[in-house]
Amino acid ABC transporter permease
Amino acid sequence: MEVTGAPEVATGARTAPEPHLPIDAIRPPRPGRWIAAVVAVFAMVWLLYTIIVNENLHWDVIVEYLTDGRILGGLWVTIQLTVLSMVIGLALGVLAAVMQLSGSPVLRAASGLYTWFFRGTPLLVQLIFWFNIGLVFPSFGIGVPFDGPKLIEWQANELITPFTAALLGLAINEGAYMAEIVRAGIRSVDPGQREAAEALGMSHRQVLRRVVLPQAMRVIIPPTGNQFISMLKTTSMVSVIAGAELLTVSQRIYLGNFEVIAMLIVASIWYIVLTTIASVGQHFIEKRFERGHHALQTRVRRNLRPFGKGSV
C-alpha cells in the first residue's frame, strides 16, 4: 500500500536563530512634560529669587546665629533626645513584638494594650502628661508594694525634669510604633527557618536572636530609618515643656531680639542638615543589607546546583 503525504521533518534538526535586528523606535512627542518642566523650573527660580532679595528675612542675622553657642547647645540636646528615644523605643518595640507573637494570651493582651493606648493618644498629650506626672504621683520610691514602707524615695518634681519627661514621652510612644515594625519584620521570615532551627535543638531565644532577627532586619531597617528621621523633627514638640532642644532655644532667642522668622529659619536649616545626614546614612545601611541578602541567595543557589545536575 502506497502512502502519500508531506515529507517528514527531522525532529533533531535545529533552526538557525534569527538575527537580532536593531530597533529604531521613535519616541512620541510629549509636549505636556516639557511644559510642566519649564513651569517647575520657573517657579523654583522665582521662589529662590524672592527669598534671596527679601530684606525682611534678615540673612545677616541668620548667618550670625547659625553657629551661636546657644543654638549648638539646643542642637546637641535634639541629637541626644533622638538617639536615646530611638534606642529605648527600639528595645521596647522588640519586647512588645515578641510578646505579641507569644503563645501566652496574657502577654499578647498586655502588648496589644500598650500599642493600642500609646498609638491612640497624641504625642503632645503624652509629653504634657509626663511633665506633670508629679500632680498624680508626688513621689516615687522602691519598697514594699501596697502602701508598705519605702527604702528609697524621690520627689517627682526633682526626678522628672523637662529632658526626662521628653525622653519618656518620645521613647514610650516610639516603642508602640516600633512594635508593629518589628512584628511585621519577624512575620516576613519563612516559618521553615524557625522550624529548622528548632529541629537542630536551638532554644526559642537562640532562634530569635540567631535566625529570625538577622533575616528580619532587611524588612525592619527601612521603616526604622524613616522613624529616626521623623524623630529628629518630632523632638521639636518638646518645646511645649521647655525641653531646651533646638526649637525651644530658638524661641527663647527670638523672644529677646524679636527676629522670629530669622530664628525659625536657623532652626529649619539645622533640621534639614540633620535629616539629610540621617537619610544618607539610611541609604548606605539599606544597600549593605541588600548586598548581604543577595550574596546569601547566590550562595544558596551555588550550593544547591550540584544536586540539580545529577538528578534524572
